[in-house]
């Protein structure tokens, strides 16, 4: 932690300069941790007098758009020229909840040539180089780490109730409701402090878990009943979902959140992969139990990465070819990493 505190102090001095402009960028297909971090950090920066914009290569999930500042975000899909201009004109670029520009989708070419200071605030392993690196794989989430960053720069009193709600959203969703990667006492100390600072836990849970649409339940039911398959040779569940099926069930961003975790509730399954066909690419979500490192599978074959038990990837191939590649590489993965 000593190195992290030194980096936070360096960043504090940089942010004390006048007339700064900043952009905040989450990873492609942002989840609760990425969105919560963007919401809270945008507030922190604007309170400090820094002109700031949130940019995303796609869209934020509908179920997270209640978080403060998220509706202010600019999507590359809607305003590519605005995104390019804001990146080019920024002094600082904050990469939240990801550790490489390769996870920024259509924004990657413009971030790669950014001339200002890049700041990575993240909890994934093997981050790429940046002018400011605040990375800790021990924390539950980027939002837990961001709590340390915000309080270290502006003090505990800088966190208002909306920021507390956003930070808790990230902690809660990235740990599956505190069911995994959440055994450090410090995680609960942060949550306790957020409660003292105004966190409305009941409100957050309402938006996260009690705002489903009937179409979402039917899509998930269809996926589990008709699409879920189990590999005959390995403890692997696969859920492929076509673009046509998404359209049939009126899919909205975030409707498939949590689906990939469900097969892991089956005793004999230790890896679950959700493969979702989108207009621009096929997206993959990997989940596992115990010490099975699905991030290695995602990184080696599917242009992705992530955590030991939760990773993502993407491919510019037809859905059937992606499924075929999973089946072809499964023997390598299970023989290399899974003891049976």
From TrEMBL:
Could you state a single Gene Ontology molecular function term? Answer: nucleic acid binding
Q: Which residues form the DDH domain?
A: 22-171
Question: InterPro entries attached here?
Answer: DDH_dom, DHH_sf, DHHA1_dom, Oligoribo/pAp-PDE_c-di-AMP_PDE
What's the source species for this entry? Answer: Odoribacter laneus YIT 12061
Q: Name one Pfam family in it.
A: DHH
Domain DHHA1 per the UniProt entry, residue ranges: 248-328
Question: Lineage in the entry?
Answer: Bacteria, Pseudomonadati, Bacteroidota, Bacteroidia, Bacteroidales
Quote the protein name from its UniProt record: DDH domain-containing protein
